[in-house]
Amino acid sequence: MRRLILFFAVTICTAAVAAADQRMQGRPAQIISGNELLLITRDGSHHRILLLGVGIPQPRQKWSAAAGRHLRMLVMGKPVEFRYPPQRSSGRLAGRLLHAGRDINRRLLAAGLARFDPVPALSAEIADDYRAAEREARQRGAGIWRDNSAPPPRGVQGPSDMRQYSERRSPTH
Q1: Which of 58, 105, 138, 141 is deepest in the core (most CB within 10 A)?
Q2: In angstroms, rounded to a whole number, what is the distance separating the alpha carbons of residues 69 and 49?
Q3: What's the number of CA atoms in the CB half-sphere (13 Å) around residue 160?
Q4: Which domains does the chain have, with CATH numbers?
Q5: Exposure pattern of 79-107 as b/e (b: 16+ CB <10 Å)?
Q6: Which residues fall within 8 angstroms of residue 40, CB to CB, at 6 or more apart?
Q7: How many angstroms separate the CA atoms of 171 and 173, rounded?
Q8: Are 51 and 35 spatial neighbours (Cβ–Cβ below 8 Å)?
Q9: How far is it, in rounded angstroms, from Cα 76 to Cα 31?
Q10: CA–CA separation, 67 and 63 (whole Å)
Q11: What distance in Å separates the CA atoms of residue 11 and residue 143, rounded to the nearest whole number?
Q12: How far apart are CA 79 and CA 68, in angstroms?
């Protein structure tokens, strides 16, 4: 019986470690967009990283530059920690950026400079937190929610797709 309990304990711990995010620390060297930056780690390596769950307006769209400026103000030249899932299908580094323990992805959503972009790599707890940050920004009419210029969610190509998306999210449907 003890062996069985030990086996399950080791299995659970191994699964938890395997599912845990990888981490790297460094300083942003360049802000590429409102959700992408170049990170230089302590060992001097350069990594182009994407903030997971954060959909920003496309370049030249309203609020795009503001998202980039806000990200720059929050992290440029400051020590940050980047947490990302160990397995990446696209080969890109995408994850959560933290400065002084604060989630920068969430701060962009709370400022109303991004739309929450649900992705499977985010835990349910973090996804719920990001949804709440977006909802609060919407209620305040902050940033992209001020004048209804929010970028469409991933996969929405044109006005007809946006109508269908809006109808699915409507509380009356």
Answers
A1: 105
A2: 17
A3: 0
A4: 21-147 (2.40.50.90)
A5: ebbbbbbeeeeeeebbbbbbeeeebbbbb
A6: 26, 27, 28, 29, 46, 47
A7: 6
A8: yes
A9: 8
A10: 6
A11: 46
A12: 18
28 in Cβ contact with 104 (< 8 Å): no
Residue 50, strand partner residues: 36, 94
**What does the pLDDT look like over 10-65, one tens digit per residue?**
444 334 433 578 999 999 999 999 999 999 999 999 999 999 999 998 888 889 99
pLDDT, tens digit, for every residue of 88-139?
656 679 999 999 999 999 999 999 999 999 999 999 999 999 999 999 999 9
Whose structure tokens read 């992805």? 105
Q: Strands 46-51 and 93-99, how do they pair? A: parallel
170 or 110, greater pLDDT? 110
